[in-house]
Amino acid sequence: MSLRCSSFVFQTFTIKLKMTDFGEILRNIGEFGLFQKITLIALCFPNFVQTFLFASFVFIQSDPDRHCNTDWILSAAPNLTSEEQLNLTVPREEDGTFSKCEMFVPVNWDIDTIREYGLNETTGCQDGWVYENMLYKATIVTDFDLVCGRASLVEVIQAMFMAGVLVGSLVFGHFAESFGRKRATQISAVLLSVFTMTTALCPNVYLYLVSLFLVGFGGGGYQVNSIILSTEWIGMSKRSWGACVSQLFSAIGHCVLAGMIYGIRNWRLAQLITAVPLAVLMIYIWFIPESARWLLSRGRKEEAKQLIVKAAAINKHPVSESLLDKIEVNNTVNNGGIKIIFRSSLLTRYFFIIILSWFSVNLSIYRLYLDMENYGLSIFLIQLLFGVFFNTLCFTLHVAAGDFW
């Protein structure tokens, strides 16, 4: 399930529409016609891919069995079996298994001396690790050796991505109020697309951390503004479709993710494949229309009228010039900031309910993800079932929301 981070409205607008409001315009040109459907699908399509970014950490951070690389002993006895090599060069834990993080200090002895006297002094792995019983061909753990003393970086990686999502949601939420939904969506889409690709090419974990933060930054901004931009063109009676379709693309992405990782099992290749649909996004994102509601709130009536006429033509519901002329916009900007929310007890209550609900749902989802390997089933099957569940939930919520509205 895609992470959702609410953007705060730092500026509010008082819009006076004489005789005709924007809702009436939408009822005349079609509340959910071809224009709205194309815009909605085009903007929500990347959510299908963003699921890979939000959920793929379960796969690309997999930590397989391992032991220290002790090939130094092969210079003394090239024909040693793997079992003999481990017995001579790697200490055992209390449970009898070979240590994952320690090895015996290399010595310049012949093999007979090593066998007779054994090795006692231990040290950390000096020449990297040997990974065994790997479910995947390559993960960030194996490529960057994020084990033992560097294992904590795995948690830092996920935290860095989430920090990017949070910051991006807040920054682009405010940016969209000042400079437009379209521009905010375009810039965040560029960041998301470019750094999704560079993430796959990072030679070390530190560049990977920076790149992943920027992926989250762009992804958070895109999620917030794409759904706002698409739903502001949809009439109230069909508004629930906006949220439903957005989540539906994410749910389908969960299902596809299971199949993609099952077939590829290489995190770099999976990341590059994820970037391909985002490259398609870069082609058409420049043709997405601005929100007419936002244009009207900024007093840009003529631009809004042009977009309304275009939408009406695509929907095959021409709008009369007389109806458009009845729109009179008087916009005033109130720079009260977020404290406007707390001036109303009702808004304050809704604000904290939404924040708490958002936090609880996402915490529960990620808790389930982090525990996937302990369910006793194939991790790929569980991922697929998550997608099926989310698809069912999307349709259920849409029906409930439709009945409510």
Describe this entry's structure for a reader.
The protein has 405 residues and is mainly α. The chain has 2 domains: 223 residues, no CATH class; 68 residues, no CATH class. It is built from 16 helices and 6 strands. The strands form 3 sheets. It has a two-stranded antiparallel ribbon. Helix 2 runs antiparallel to helix 9, helix 2 crosses helix 10 and helix 7 packs parallel to helix 9. The longest helix is centred in the middle third of the chain and has 28 residues. The radius of gyration is 27 Å and the shape is elongated. The two termini are 24 Å apart.
Order of strands across the main sheet: 1-6
Elements, N to C (H/E): EHHHEHEHEEHHHHHHHHHEHH
The number of helical runs is 16
Q: Care to count the β-strands? A: 6
Overall mean pLDDT score?
82
Shape: elongated
Instruction: Give a quick account of the main beta sheet: strands, pairing sense, barrel closure.
Output: 2 strands, antiparallel
Task: Name the beta content range.
Answer: under 5%
Low-confidence stretches: 1-19
Proportion of residues in helical segments: 55-70%
Q: What is the C-alpha radius of gyration, as a whole number of Å?
A: 27 Å
Task: Assign the structural class, choosing from mainly alpha, mainly beta, alpha/beta, alpha+beta, or little secondary structure.
Answer: mainly alpha
- Count of all domains: 2
The span between the termini is 24 Å
Membrane topology: Multi-pass membrane protein
GO molecular function: transmembrane transporter activity
Protein name: Solute carrier family 22 member 13a
Domain Major facilitator superfamily (MFS) profile: 113-405
